[in-house]
Write the structure tokens for this entry.
Amino acid sequence: MNTSERKTDADLNAYVDDQLDGHKRMEMEAWLAVHPEDAKRVEVYRKQNEELHNLFDSVIDEPIPSGLSDLVMKPRASSRKPSLMRIAATLAVLVTGAGSGWGLHEVYDQRTNPRLNAPPTFVERAVGAHLVYASEIRHPVEVAANQEKHLVAWLSKRLGSPLHPPHLRSAGYNLVGGRLLEESGAPAAQFMYEDNAGKRVTVYLRTYTGQDTAFKFFHTENASTFYWMDAPFAYALTGDLPRQDLLNIAHTVYEDLAP
């Protein structure tokens, strides 16, 4: 670790989680001594770790309920419920394992971990659409939330399956509206939400017929995305938010979409 090179989130998390050897640790401490913004981020990560440990350490060693374990391990059935349970189990692992920021970077952060494959095309499209439209002042959506019934009927018809915009009021976000998008010649949809401070997140949907139900994280310089597939749709939740805040909203999206 060169003290003249800017430190990434992965470097800072490695320091917080005692993953650096003595020499690299001293280099990092020298860097933090003259870079107060990074030092402040380190303190935030430490506080977050402490809070997560306080919340979840008591349940980490509890056995996984047999019913949940069976659902996670069983092959996908015709019902949507098993796949949603697998996604729920992944969300639970993300939350209870979030005490190690380094571990999460190692698994989910594709920006700082070039060994991982690039995200699916629909994720790149979702991020691009978010960056274009979430910053738009006068025309962020095609159809506003006051025409939600029309918006849902129109997008459901174009995508060929019934859909509805998730309700995120419990997470502090209200529906702004939505729009029709295009991905590789096929229709896709974007729903946009905004909190009282004007911060926006988007949920991108496109049709999906595969069997994969993985729940993953993708990060770029300007936005972060949690994405997953659960037929008949693939979903991408995108926002310029801290990872944990976005994960909390992902929980809300999942719970609202679950039958």
Residues 110 and 116 are 6 Å apart (CA to CA). The chain is about 45% helix and 20% strand. The chain has a mean pLDDT of 79.
